[in-house]
Amino acid sequence: MPTTLTTVDVFLLALIDGGATTVYTMNRAAGLSIGTALPAIRRLEVEGLIAQHKPEARRKQTLSLTSVGRKALKDQRPRVIEAGIRKPPRELNSVLRLASLALGTGDRESCVAILRAAAANRAGTGTVPPRRNRTAKPGRGLGSLYLWMVEIAESFRHDSEAKALRDLVTRL
Question: Which candidate among 69, 82, 149, 159 keeps its CA 20 to 30 Å from the CA of 9?
Fold first, then answer.
C-alpha cells in the first residue's frame, strides 16, 4: 500500500480517473499548475499508482491509473475528505479541491461540511492578530511597514474567503 496520500495526490488520481490524462488537460480542466502537478505525478508514479505512457502526437505524455492507483483512490478519497472536515486546510485551493472531491462523488453533505468548517476557521479574523499589536501604527523601516501591511491584508483576506465559502454552501 502507498504512503498516506495528500489532498493533491488524491485530486490528481481523481482527475486522471476522470479523463484528464496530461498535465495540460489537468490545467485546463481544474486549473492545476504544472508546479503543483509534476512533483505529485512523479511521486505517484514512483509509488506505482500511475503509469506514464510514451508521448503521442505533439510529445505529450499521457497518464493512467494502475490497479493499485484505482484502489488507492477508492480507499483514500473518503479518508482525505473526512480529514478535511475535521481539520480544513488553511489554503483556499486545498479547501476547494477537497470540496470538489466530495461533490464529485455525489457527497454533497461532506462538501458542505468542508466548506462550513473552512469558513468557520476563517470567520472573525478581520482584525490584526494581537501578537504583533501594530494596528495603530507600523514600526520603523521598510520591512516593518511591509509586515504590518501583510498582516492586515491577510486578516481581511480570511474574512473574504469565509464569506465566499459560506456563499458556495448556499449555491449547492
Answer: 159
Residue 140 belongs to domain spanning: 88-172
Count Cβ neighbours within 10 Å for each residue of 120-157 and write b for 16 or more, e otherwise: ebbeebeebeeeeebeeebeeeeeeeeebeebbeebee
Given 57, 86, 115, the domain boundary residue is: 86
Q: Are residues 171 and 122 in the same domain?
A: yes
List the CATH number of the domain containing 8.
1.10.10.10
Q: What is the pLDDT of residues 110-152, one digit of tens each?
A: 999 999 999 988 876 544 444 444 454 666 666 766 777 777 7
Q: Can you tell me the distance from the alpha carbon of 122 to that of 155, in angstroms, rounded to the nearest whole number?
A: 9
Domain boundary among 86, 116, 150: 86
